[in-house]
């Protein structure tokens, strides 16, 4: 009889989803290692926003071009990391990986070779991967929050951009993905298999800086759209020929004034004037802020602008382009949940149901044409790809170029794409009465 060895699963702690994630939880998890052990700490401190900013700083030689929050997350628990033999895999180098390495090395040396010196407070995720490849998703013990089939569906649909998830060294095939609840805060993930890496790899390119300025006005009560048209016409008149020097000039209403409002805030709508230019001078106060303020004495009734006009001063923005390089050269609604996100200028949005009997209705409803209809004025004519994931009751869409030119340069409020799903969920559709008997989400 061959020798058999029982191996415990490898426990991987997901410690960070962005540079803004709660760094204190990293230290808390490390310090609680004896009660809730893990083997590997992984984290992503990067996003298209800080990759873009750091690329610019690196190009200009101005300041630190790696993600400093990675260092601050670890510096107080380096001794414990060494004591427990915790391995770390992090994406935090941004545009200066060598700089991050040097900074971490200096920190270790400074510490004298690692010598000691509800709905809130949600726990960090843990993936348990055993020797057979089985994956169980859980979270740190004793923490708040929830790990369930629905929360796992939500996170998956947030990230993917089609049936395959491409990495530089492997491709994950997602069509068969399935989640199964094993118990409180324990979900089995199955149905994903791997394959060879793609022939190409995605590359993000930061463009030369441009300049952005904006002003906000408050419109109150009745005739909001008429007031907005009046203000736009007045501003265009005052800007005159300066408009020719702008690469973009947008006027947008944000919100809807409540009818018979019980307080003034409920009757107030924001009106944004957004401009961009390739040259700083064209958005300087004499060319943007001052001409707009000169309309003050002819404003719409109740005309008021935001007191903080610093946003009307030009600031740098950077276009972010996504392209491919050859790999050989370099790497919806009461009853439906949704999750959306972004990659570059593309938005991805997934919808998933609560009960299995709702899926056929969902997949029949959500066609590409239906998504275009639900997007309404938000649809810009771009290509839309559709993906069905029947094992998790989900339908996923990839909206190409839906988010303008990337997170740091877009003029929309929804710069991360996270509200596309909530917007589409809010649209009216016909729902079978039988499904409503189960209640509202």
UniProtKB/TrEMBL annotation:
User: AtuA-like ferredoxin-fold domain location, by residue?
Assistant: 335-426
Name the domain of life: Eukaryota
| Pfam families linked | AtuA, AtuA_ferredoxin
Q: Which InterPro entries match?
A: AtuA-like_ferredoxin_dom, AtuA_N
According to the entry, every stretch annotated as the Acyclic terpene utilisation N-terminal domain falls at: 10-112, 117-333
UniProt protein name:
Uncharacterized protein
Q: Which organism is it from?
A: Penicillium cf. viridicatum
